[in-house]
């Protein structure tokens, strides 16, 4: 009988120890982001803002890099203590109505995913658009993965 209790308590102890708090707390979480239009009253940045990229993105973490690399009508003083700017270019096969963004924290992989959905139309205009989002300051060595979706 004592032998069975020892086995039971050993198994129970092993199960409790093997379940880490990270498994319970760490989930994929949607995180709020904001655009330069919303935060700094810029207008039509997909056409009026430019960065020297082609079908790629970069993360800008300070005002000096922003001033040197981004051109256009909107040149705000961004709060880089709070935000990082994810900005890129996408060459699209047809016209564009709008852009939707989702920012997801994959804390298990220490990665963030910025899912950019271009809502397309059937016009023959094939724009090369600038997309961007102000995201909360990245933690440590976290990475961002940008996923482009055409809808």
Order of helices and strands: HHEHHEEHEEEEEE
Uncertain parts: 3-10, 12-22
What percent of residues adopt helix (DSSP H or I)? 25-40%
Number of separate helices: 5
**How does the major sheet shape up?**
4 strands, mixed
Global shape: globular
What structural class results from the helix and strand content? Answer: alpha+beta
What integer is the average pLDDT? 85
Extended strand count? 9
Strand content: 35-45%
Rg estimate, integer Å:
22 Å
Question: What is the distance, rounded to the nearest whole angstrom, between the alpha carbons of the first and last residues?
Answer: 65 Å
Q: Which strands sit side by side, in order, in the main sheet?
A: 1-6-7-9
How would you summarize this macromolecular structure in one to three sentences?
This protein is α+β, with helices and mostly antiparallel strands and 151 residues long. The protein is built from 5 helices and 9 strands.
Describe this structure in words.
The chain is an alpha+beta fold. It is 25% helix and 40% strand. The protein has five helices and nine strands; from the N terminus they run ααβααββαββββββ. The chain has a four-stranded mixed sheet with strand order 1-6-7-9, with no helix packed on it. A three-stranded antiparallel sheet has the order 3-5-8. The longest helix has 17 residues, at 2-18. The protein is globular. 15% of the residues are buried. The model is unreliable at 3-10 and 12-22 (pLDDT under 50).
């Amino acid at each position: 009988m004592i032998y069975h209790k020892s086995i039971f308590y050993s198994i129970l102890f092993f199960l409790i120890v093997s379940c880490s708090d990270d498994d319970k707390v760490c989930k994929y979480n949607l995180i709020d982001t904001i655009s330069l239009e919303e935060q700094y009253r810029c207008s039509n940045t997909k056409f009026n803002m430019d960065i020297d990229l082609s079908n790629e993105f970069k993360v800008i973490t300070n005002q000096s890099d922003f001033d040197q690399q981004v051109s256009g009508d909107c040149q705000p003083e961004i709060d880089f203590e709070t935000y990082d700017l994810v900005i890129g270019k996408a060459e699209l096969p047809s016209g564009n109505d709008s852009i939707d963004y989702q920012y997801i924290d994959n804390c298990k992989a220490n990665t963030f995913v910025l899912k950019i959905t271009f809502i397309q139309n059937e016009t023959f205009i094939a724009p090369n658009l600038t997309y961007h989002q102000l995201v909360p300051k990245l933690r440590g060595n976290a990475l961002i993965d940008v996923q482009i979706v055409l809808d």
